[in-house]
Amino acid sequence: MSGPVALSGRRVWGLVYRHLALYRRSWPRLLELAYWPILQMTIWGFVSEFMVRSSGWAAAASGVLIGAVLLWEVCLRSQMGFAISFLEEVWSRNLGNLFVSPIRPWELVAGLVTMSVLRMTAGIVPAILLAWALYAFAITDMGFVLIAFFALLMAMGWAVALAVTAMVLRHGAGAEALAWSVLFGLAPLSAVFYPVSILPSWLQPVALAIPATHVFEGMRAALLEGSVATGHLAAAAVLNVVWLGLAAWLFAWVFRIARQKGLLLNVGE
After folding, report:
1. Are 74 and 216 in contact (CB under 8 A)?
2. Residue ranges covered by each domain of the chain
3. Residue 7's closest CA among 101, 85, 118, 117?
4. pTM assigned to the model
5. What is the pLDDT of residues 179-226, one digit of tens each?
6. Distance CA 109, CA 162 (A)
7. Which of 27, 98, 117, 163 is the most buried (most CB within 10 A)?
8. How far apart are CA 176 and CA 23, in angstroms?
9. Which spans in the chain are helix H?
C-alpha cells in the first residue's frame, strides 16, 4: 500500500513545487499574496478606530470589525489560492500536459488545496501581525475556537473554488471571472460585518444556509460574550460537508464531460 501512496504523494508534491517555483522567481507574485489582506486590514482597522472613538457601543465591540476582516480574508484567500493556482495551469496551457501524465483528478485537487493553504498563510499572517502592531488586536484572544473558525472558512473557500474550477473546465475563459466574483457576491449574506438579524426576514434562511454565516455569528459570540457558539460551529461543519460534497460531485461530473469531449486541451481558449 505504501507504494501507491508514495507515488501519489510525489505527484501532489510535483504540482505544489511547480507553483512554488513561480513564486521563488517572481517577487510581484509574492507581494500580491499579502497586498490585499494588508490593505483591507489597514482601511477597516482605521475605520474601527474611528468608531471606537466616536461611539460607546463601538468601544465595547472594538475588535469585532477587525476580527471580521481577518476571518473573511481567510475564506477569500483560501478560495482565491485554489482558483488562481488552477488558472495558472490554464493560462500557461499546461492543463492538457498534466492530464496526459499519471496525475489523477483528486491529486490535482490535493495539490491545489495545498497551494491554497500556503497562499492563505502567506497573506493572512502579515495582516494578523499588522492588526496587533497598529490596533493592539490579537485575534488569538478568541482561544482554541479560532482554529475551528479557520478550518471552517477554509473548507467553504475550497468548496466555492472547486465549483468555480468546474465552471472554468466546462465554459473556458468566459467563466474565469467567477474566481474573483463569487465570494464577494456571497459576502452580503454571510453576516461578515453585522448579525443575521439585520437582514430581512425572508433573506435570513438563505444566509443561514451559508457556512460562513455561522462562523461570523460564532465570532461575535466569542468576542462580545466570551462564549463558544457550539450550535453555530456544528451548523457550519454540516453545511461545509454538504457544500464540499456538491462541489466535488460537480467537479467530477464536469471533468468527465471535459475529458470525453476533449475540452481539457482547449480550456482558456
Report:
1. no
2. 2-265
3. 101
4. 0.81
5. 888 888 888 888 888 888 888 899 899 999 999 999 999 988 888 777
6. 8
7. 163
8. 21
9. 2-24, 27-54, 56-60, 62-91, 95-99, 105-135, 145-171, 178-186, 204-207, 211-220, 230-261
